[in-house]
């Protein structure tokens, strides 16, 4: 067997290509977001880009320094990277994922179809001000208020126009978004919308509502934002297709990756009208686009690692069947997938 030092060298040498490819695909998303996004999306892109660079540096350099410091002077032939809680976690995982793939196909198809049918019945997607144009107001109260009660009070004053009211940070702060007079970008229209809002808020006069800030997106600007958002998604998928083709030298890898990413995006989009059917009114805006691209990034990150393992298995034995290659590749990377999912989920939850 190899010595500890040689084992570390071999491990990092074998892992470098997967680490490099997964970070490049995520950086590609950060670049596209930074180039086509505006405002908070650009800020998110910068943060994502910095995060990718620092995580890459940590993965290939800092972690190696730490491990080499741990094994320096060790007389034993092994080193443990687990605790008593995680030692046997995900060990000997052997799911027949290929054999059960039709269940996954059916589940995804049902969710996506239900989501888009609900979207049609709901009159289309619940677009935010970024995409449909309109005005958004941040309103402070002197105590916590119920967003649904505020929405019921002001809805008649906006004459049936699109309306969304949701808590915005503090319990006594709401963000009120409306498409009322969205096509009219004059100052007179601004005053009419504010007057309608104040009229609707008279029921809450005792709570001293104060409009703290206003944002407005004209219909023309909204159309431009929609176009750039769709373009950013399309360029992301195209860029990933080209890069995977370059790295793995087979178009089948690229096509499978893009189909999987397209599937992930459709599932996220379908979840919005489903949530809306249960009373959770989430908007589709630029932040939504950034979130979808982030999901694509994490998904692609995992896909590249699995592809790298598949390539390794095929290099060792080209005669293996599809199931004999894919199942071990997925099972051997299952612990990494679960760790990534758990850490990202905890961050989003917080």
Note down, in words, how this protein is organized.
The structure is a single chain. Helix 1 runs antiparallel to helix 2, helix 3 (101-121) packs across helix 8 and helix 7 runs parallel beside helix 9. It contains eleven helices and four strands. The protein has a four-stranded antiparallel β-sheet. With 350 residues, it is an alpha+beta fold.
Distance between the amino and carboxyl termini: 44 Å
Give the spatial strand order of the biggest sheet.
2-3-1-4
Gyration radius over CA: 25 Å
Which CATH architecture of the largest domain? Answer: Up-down Bundle
What is the third-level CATH name, the topology of the largest domain?
Multidrug efflux transporter AcrB transmembrane fold
Number of helices: 11
Provide the low-confidence segments as ranges.
Answer: none
Let me know the largest β-sheet. 4 strands, antiparallel
What's the count of strands?
4
What is the total domain count?
3
- Proportion in helices: 55-70%
CATH class of the largest domain: Mainly Alpha
- Note the run of SSEs as H and E: HHHHEHEEHEHHHHH
Give the DSSP E fraction (strand runs of 2 or more residues).
5-15%
Briefly note the structural class of the backbone.
alpha+beta
Overall mean pLDDT stands at 82
Gross geometry: elongated
Q: Which superfamily, in CATH terms, is the homologous superfamily of the largest domain?
A: Multidrug efflux transporter AcrB transmembrane domain
